[in-house]
Amino acid sequence: MLDTDDWSLEEIETVLDQTRAMVEILSRPIRRAPALRGRTVILFFAEVSTRTRVSFELAAKALSADVVNITATGSSVEKGESLLDTVRTLQALGGDVVVMRHSSSGAPYFVAQRTESAVINAGDGWHAHPTQGLLDAYTLRDALGELGGKRVVIVGDILHSRVARSDINTLVPLGARVTLSGPPTLVPAAWRCGQLPAGVTYEPLLDRALDGADAVIALRLQRERQESGLLPSLREYSRVWGLSLDRVGRMRPGAPVMHPGPMNEGIEIDAAVAHGSRSLIETQVTNGVAVRMALLYLLAGASTPSGVPAAAAPLEERG
Ligand code: CP
After folding, report:
1. Integer distance in angstroms from the first to the last C-alpha of the chain?
2. Sheet strands side by side (includes 215-218)
3. pTM to 2 decimals?
4. Does residue 49 have its Cβ closer than 6 Å to ligand 1?
5. What range does the domain containing 31 cover?
6. Where are the beta strands (DSSP E) in the chain?
7. Protein residue with its CA nearest to atom 1 in ligand 1
8. CA of 53 to the centre of ligand 1 (A)
9. Mapping DSSP to helix (H, G, I), strand (E, B) and coil, where does residue 97 land?
């Protein structure tokens, strides 16, 4: 599960439907199903993470898998062990699924080609964060209903954002129209020159982008991935591109605000918006567990006696 860029609508719908079944499991007094009993999920995070790593761990444990955590810090990567040797070690340890985050775009592809384990991309460089795209789609559809014709603004550091790419890959097939907004220096050159993916437009004026929008997703300003000189100053960025209460008031009444986290509060989003009545930011985090349960189940549990309900079955028929 390396990217959603080649997924069909049916594949996206399958994960979202399975996620709803997992939400039901998580609402039970005992939030556990035996679907992955006897399976081992290795969380290999070579780049920092809070939400993705913890939600994968909770998801795997909710499905009764054994979970092993490896981070670059504190592992033999610090002694110079290569990615290839690390992968061979994970294979020898018997991981059925390797969930991987890495600062290099393409690293999960490298691993997937060299291991028998299923590999899930938990974010690679600027390239993709497919599970974030799926949880954002699930959260938006839960809030807005069917996304056909809905207009979703994605604002901020588009250039360095794997989330923006993965959100486009899931929202557009579901029928949403995506408006990108952000400083021209932080938008891929081809995109700001009009060579955009189908269903996507670029509007450099944020106020105009937000007028009448159905939802907005603010992106983190990724200072760790930026060259100098892309922005005049953080204060200027916040003034022109930050989500304030006034700005979000330009959207449809009640239109939700999302952010993948972690946030730079006061830079790309004001605290009053991040924690205000329109915010779905904590809901995104919560939904991350169910989406990742669905993916783990579909990848590693579907052919085993599972105890997990089929997404399509009525609730009362589910285990
Ligand atoms: N959204 C996201 O990927 O957050 P983490 O970096 O905390 O995992």
Report:
1. 27
2. 200-202, 177-181, 151-155, 215-218, 257-258
3. 0.92
4. yes
5. 9-129+284-300
6. 40-45, 66-71, 97-102, 118-124, 151-155, 177-181, 200-202, 215-218, 257-258
7. 260
8. 8
9. strand
Q: pLDDT by residue (tens digit) across 146-170?
A: 999 999 999 999 999 999 999 999 9
Is the C-beta atom of 161 inside 6 A of ligand 1? no
Would you say the CB of residue 222 lies under 6 angstroms from ligand 1? no
Split into its structural domains, the chain has a count of: 2
Whether 310 maps to a domain, the answer reads no
Q: Same domain for 124 and 135?
A: no
Residue with CA nearest ligand 1 atom 5: 49
| Pocket flag, ligand 1, residue 51 (CB < 6 Å) | yes
CATH of the domain at 255: 3.40.50.1370
Q: Residue 167: inside a domain, yes or no?
A: yes
At 73, is the pLDDT very low, low, confident or very high (cuts 50, 70, 90)? Answer: confident
Alpha carbon nearest to ligand 1 atom 6, residue: 49
